[in-house]
Write a structure and sequence with these properties.
The protein is of the alpha+beta class. It contains 2 helices and 7 strands, in the order ββαββαβββ.
């Protein structure tokens, strides 16, 4: 299953398909010892998780990748801030 991802200097957000999936992802991440909180801010939705930044975000994304998820950029991510990889994790274009 593919998840959307977006970043800022203060956050790495993972966008689930819906709130139910977001809650399941958060439960899986936290039970495995990874940081995952509800995203906050003007663009946050109930389906959005904040994985923090840097190594903390990398570990969460790696966990999801190993669980069978793949990633694509959220449409709201600025084009100049998109790359083929985020912290070494492959991210597809939208």
């Amino acid at each position: 299953m593919q998840l959307e991802v977006s970043t800022s200097p203060r956050a790495t957000w993972v966008w689930a398909a819906d709130q139910r999936q977001a809650e399941a992802l958060r439960a899986s991440l936290t039970s495995a010892g990874h940081e995952a909180t509800a995203a906050r801010g003007g663009n946050a939705e109930s389906r959005t998780l904040d994985l923090d930044i840097g190594v903390v975000a990398l570990e969460g994304l790696q966990f999801l990748l190993e669980a069978g998820y793949s990633f694509r950029w959220h449409p709201g991510q600025h084009l100049l801030n998109r790359a083929e990889r985020l912290f070494g994790i492959p991210v597809a274009a939208t």
